[in-house]
Amino acid sequence: MASCLLLSARLPAGSLQRSPLGRIILRKCTTNVRRGMRSAPRSKYTDLIQVSNEDAVTTSTARIKAVSAARALDGISTDDLVFFRLSTIVDGVRHKLSEVPPTEPMTETIAHRIRDLVAPLSHYRAALMEIVDESESITQHSYGALNEYVYILGKVVDPWMLKFKEKNAALTEKGKLRMLRSNLETLALKLRSARVEEWPEADTSYIRTRLEKALNAAEERENRIKPVKTTAKQRAELARIAAAEMEDASRHASFVMSLRAHLELLIHLGRPHDAVETFHQYLRVSAADDSHPRVAHVDLFNLVLRIDAQKGDLTSVKQLFCLMEEFKTDPNAPSFAAVLECVGVAKSKSTFNYDQAKTIVSQVLKGMKERQCSDSDVIYKSHSTLEQKKLIAEGIRIANPLYEIPERRPRYGYMPNPLLNGLCKEHKYAGPNFGVLDSAQMKEFSREQFETEMRGHVDIVPIVRLSNAHHPKEGDEKLIKIAEEKLVEAENKWEETLREVFRKEMEALELQVLASRRQRCITILPYLQCLEQDEFVDLMMQEIRRLSEGSETYTPSTRMMNKQLGQFVMNKYMLKRRSNSGVIGKLEELYGKFADNCIDETGVDIPRVAWQKIVAANQSGPNVDKILHSWPSNVLITVGKFLNQIILNNIKIDARMFNTTNKNQKPLLLPAFFKLYRSQGVMMREELKVHPVAAKLYRLGSHHPLRFDAEVVPMVSPPLPWVSNRFGGYLTSTAKIMRLPPGAHQQFAELNRVPAQQLYPTYDSLNQLSANPWIVNEPVLDLAIDIFVCGGDDHLEIPKPPLACPAPPVITSDMTKKEKFKAHVDKIHLKRLKGEMYSLWCDALYKLSIANHFRKRILWFPHNIDFRGRAYPCPPHFNHLGADLTRALLLFAKGQPLGLKGFDWLKIHLVNLTGHKKRDPISGRLNYANDMMGDIMDSAERPLTGKGWWKDSDEPWQTLAACKEVAAAIRCEAGPENHVSHFPIHQDGSCNGLQHYAALGRDPQGAFSVNLGAAERPQDVYSDVAAMVERERVRDAAKGVKIAAALEGMIKRKVIKQTVMTTVYGVTRYGARLQIAKQLKDLDDFPQDMCFAASQYLTQKTFLCLQEMFTGTKLIQDWFTECARLISGVCGQPVEWISPLGLPVIQPYHRGGKKNFGSSVDATGLRINTRNLVDSFERPNTMKQKNAFPPNFIHSLDSTHMMLTSLYCQQAGISFVSVHDCYWTHPCTVDVMNEICRDQFVALHSQPILEDLRDFMVSKYSFPHQDLDDGGTVQGIAKRKLNRTLTEVPEKGSFDLQQVKHSTYFFS
């Protein structure tokens, strides 16, 4: 009724009588009543208010705050105050606020007053439904009145409904109808949520149905309107505004990250007062300066609240909550936990004010109720210790004396997922390391791993000295001795220099802070106080060795080196912080119990559940999984730059050090490191270069062992299980569950958002892979070391040292100009070749040295994933994902008897490694192995002096290892079937990416080509495509095409193999042409001058044949590409999806921000640049998004298949390891793994994968009808195309997935 009065005052009487809406209004009010309400003084409204209160419906005020409501009502215009009830509400709220002390703005009195002053909405509902009934005959001039009606209703229900006020001038007839429908639906939903009265679901449908006819009619009329193009200037202006908004948001997010890290550091350094003052300083600045990044973030408030909570300062806590309300910062569970903890601490003090505490607790409990935040959330989601939980409970007891902490039983199971239904919830397993080592060994290895990680590095003796890479062993003993003496002398001097310079720099910084009055700013000083001086000196000395022992041809960028050194400082600080807080001690205690679980022979839980139960049973003391935020990139770079600058300015080297001819010459001291600038496109890149004399000094004189960080070498005890996205892997070293590029925050934010149970399958699969113990294959290692020490072997892929590189030609004066030019080119080529040889030689040295260090030891490889869900071992240098030699060096630590079929699988695997019988059936390969048994035994017994049959294999080192295993089985006295084998057998997917595409599209021909269907012999898709290309070539040659005739006999499998393989990964025609051209150049009998034309021709034919063979695959790939293009281009968002196992995936490809983010400090070198690259506020790179989506989605499917196989193999009690689409197990369990692998592939692709993807993208990216452009603009057309494309799922073929279960060569 109120809005009817307002509307009738604004509309002419004639309009009211002519329109259905006007007739409704006239039925509900009279002019006299309206005039009386306008003219009557407000003091006479009291009687009317009392009458209305008697009929008022008691509404829920759970979402209304007194101050916010007063502010919202205070902004109502004079015209809106025509209706006396709204003006009375304002007066009543102001009156009540004047009665309440300023420190208590939120009381039950005010809340009840607002509730009682709200008009009875039952009257409005009746009028609303009448208007909807007559909506079909609404005339053009009535749209504004109708929306105004909704607008007033929205004001009464919720002040934030002001945004629904219509802007009539900007909308067409169809747009007005759409806004009308949206407003009415939103209002109905808000009435339901406010629980003013029961608003049945049918009413919402009723409104939508009654307006649908009018909307459709308007659409039919306006679809005939010609598209209106926006000008380039308009589009540029819109883009500029959007970019400015994203820039502002990015500045805000970056500043919050920097300030949070700074405040946390101050608190840990024992300076909480400085942290509080710094926060308030920035809060005042941001309030006074609109251009300053906003500081009012709940995480920052929570840090300060926690400081006051520990002191029990109720007054400060109350003031902070008032500030949060003033700055419109919504509190969360940690906020409420801090306040309640403060009350609990204050309760034990003699100055405790019970009334004040009760008021605060009541307000907190009310705020929790408004935000649907339960007491359980406050206690358990705030990462509180057991002692803090008890204090929170004490705070709640102020209002509820009988309160007890609710028991929260951890949820160990998965969220509902049909793919996981076959996993038994209560299934028990034998410990993954049972039988591998005993309890005493486990305790010893655990202690050793803790010591290693606390030390932060592992020193490994190299199998040869680095000097052997460049100088022969004979004739250089004198030079090496001189270098050793000089190096010891130089390092001692450098260490003293660094210590003295660092001390002076710190004194200068402290003076700058005092002189510049920047005690309350984000400066570098606290980051240089978080460690002891000697620790910084040690880190700088390690950096010197790292730079000096690197490649002479590779020069890292200063930005990269600064960030790396800053990362080392942060890691050391984080470890020290966890140790000082008692986390490491408790972690060691809990890990001891977990380690016992790993070797238990009785039924035990899977690693994640076992760890969760251990933590739940030991809640006293610090939280071992407490989140420690990493320093932002700008901080890491600034800290690293400060330390590297000390090195650059103060570390000198005698350039005449090795000039022994003149012993009396003065030293020529030059910087040991210097900067150079290298052009990189249109930019100049700053790089760090080591002085040649310093590089030579370390190359010849270094006795230092190879030093590796603890997190890049294998573990000697079982890894911690992943139980969250921030806890797992190494024991104390920081490890992330997901590998992401710098600035990629969206993915981690999404991982934090989804329920923990949704990620449990991913965690459990990684834990299963990580729990598998390994040992080193010592016979193969000894042979590889012998060959490496003796100079390497290119055929066996053991790199030769750089000294094997030919000497560069000498340029003499008698050479011609052409000869000099050729000699100069050869010299550059040889220098590059020497650098490549040194890199490969060092890589092999690292691998072999690590393997030699861990011989006779048991190893574990903790795993993590990339953003698509693909699993990788964390140690980068030595793991089973490596090349042929590295894989040959690893065996399962747990042995299993070969059994009846195990010996056959071992021989079949050996033949698979050779690559000799790829098209033969399994029986043929087994017969071949038996026929070649003499050569196999010869290779095992005399690998270097015998026939060398193993050397001609595709994978020679793995073949040799298999030969030795076959020989050991044959020599077993109890028979081959009783031989205990540690050897892993591989089952590799047949072009696995195309297998997933063929299963998605149900392509019969494509599925058969990639072995999804049963066949007597393995199908080779590469040979099939080559045959199809040859068929096309013959046709073209018959028509007289010259290039087709020239390619006769040249279309071989290897020519097109790489192109076929990378098709699934989105290779372009340009990239495919380069691949084919490279293969053609390797053919000796093909004319090289025709490579370009031939590669173009074969690229075209290969793509046509693939499209013919994989019809559904091409349609799906095109749909993926088009969806990604529109999502990134029209929506301006990265492509996102959820894997069938529940892992959220976001493509981290963005255009990038400014290149100098975080790379500098201010002119004084004191303040830190607070800018970071945050992908959430960067425009996506459309080209990369669309090209990467097809392969990335397929990768997420193959990772899902691998994880499912891993989980079900774990349940079956068999060993399982994967190298993406290559699965490993013991010889005796190959059949079991094969059955599980096929069953899970069928189960995976039996799900509506494409349909689920469509539904997800439609719900996330499609535009609702009311947001579509009605004028036919470019944006409107693009939005409609996006909505249409997202729903156009390609049709599927007729292939029966059940055939996969009977396919022998699906994985083989």
Automatic annotation (TrEMBL):
DNA-directed RNA polymerase N-terminal domain span: 447-771
UniProt xrefs under PROSITE patterns: RNA_POL_PHAGE_1, RNA_POL_PHAGE_2
The reaction(s) this protein catalyses: RNA(n) + a ribonucleoside 5'-triphosphate = RNA(n+1) + diphosphate
Top-level EC class as recorded in UniProt: transferase
GO molecular function, one term: mitochondrial promoter sequence-specific DNA binding
Alphabetical list of InterPro entries matching this protein: DNA-dir_Rpol_C_phage-type, DNA-dir_Rpol_phage-type, DNA/RNA_pol_sf, RNA_POL_N_sf, RPOL_N
Superkingdom as given in the UniProt entry: Eukaryota
Transmembrane segments: none
EC number assigned by the record: 2.7.7.6
Keyword annotations: Coiled coil, DNA-directed RNA polymerase, Nucleotidyltransferase, Transcription, Transferase, Transit peptide
GO BP annotation list: DNA biosynthetic process; mitochondrial transcription
Gene Ontology, cellular component aspect: mitochondrial DNA-directed RNA polymerase complex
Job description of the protein: DNA-dependent RNA polymerase catalyzes the transcription of DNA into RNA using the four ribonucleoside triphosphates as substrates.
Protein family according to the UniProt entry: Belongs to the phage and mitochondrial RNA polymerase family.
Protein name, entry field: DNA-directed RNA polymerase
Organism: Notodromas monacha
